[in-house]
Design brief:
With about 210 residues, the chain is mainly beta. It contains one helix and 16 strands. An eight-stranded antiparallel beta barrel has the order 2-5-7-10-11-12-13-15. A three-stranded antiparallel sheet has the order 6-1-16, with no helix packed on it. The relative contact order is 0.29. The N terminus is likely disordered.
């Protein structure tokens, strides 16, 4: 079992509603008023290309998704949405590693928060991050918790949320069980990427 588990790579992260990794334009004042339409905006988001990775070996999810509510806000960062539910894989199409199905179980209480930081009027792209992320991942006898933040961007023209862990917004592993055999250890920063098609949000504009 120990040698088998050393060949696995697992990671977890989440997805949600709308935002991506970016930087504030030079000499541009950061947006402090965020208009989400409609307001409120109940939404769902679905991805078919979510990839989670630890130890250099990817775990893929044929379907991952999230649901919640978007709303207008003020401030920078601006709290523009709550993710109230999230899942990775389904019973018919589970997330898989080289050893087969992997079972992430998300916790969205308290909700994961979408925070808006910058808006590019020319491209209609809002950049920011998602925080409060928490999920438990199990593969064979290995169970661990992943929590933290991911970078996020939302593109108005395509209604696509893209997420990626890294930089100032990372995921952290904790509570790794003995069954993880040293492959997955507390303090690791698993990677996570995915593009989510969002339904229910007509746009996010910062000013």
């Amino acid at each position: 079992m120990r040698n088998t588990l050393r060949k696995i790579a697992i990671a977890t992260g989440v997805a949600s509603a709308a935002l991506v990794l970016g930087t504030t334009q030079a000499m541009a004042a950061p947006a402090t008023t965020w208009t989400v339409s409609p307001d409120p905006a109940p939404f769902t988001a679905v991805s078919t290309n979510t990839v989670l990775e630890a130890g250099g070996i990817p775990m893929t999810c044929p379907e991952a998704g999230a649901g919640g509510t978007g709303f207008s806000a003020t401030g920078n960062p601006g709290h523009v949405a709550d993710i109230e539910s999230a899942y990775f894989g389904t019973s018919a199409a589970p997330c898989t590693s080289i050893l087969g199905p992997v079972a992430p179980v998300t916790s969205t209480s308290p909700p994961w928060r979408i925070q808006a930081v910058d808006y590019d009027d020319a491209t209609g792209v809002t950049t920011g991050y998602i925080d409060n992320i928490s999920a438990e991942v199990t593969v064979l006898s290995c169970t661990f918790t992943v929590s933290g933040e991911v970078n996020a961007t939302y593109t108005n023209d395509t209604d696509v949320l893209s997420v990626e862990a890294g930089g100032d917004h990372v995921l952290n592993v904790s509570d790794a069980t003995a069954g993880c055999a040293g492959l997955v250890e507390d303090g690791m920063n698993p990677s996570f990427t995915g593009d989510y098609a969002v339904d229910g949000v007509d746009g996010i504009v910062g000013s």
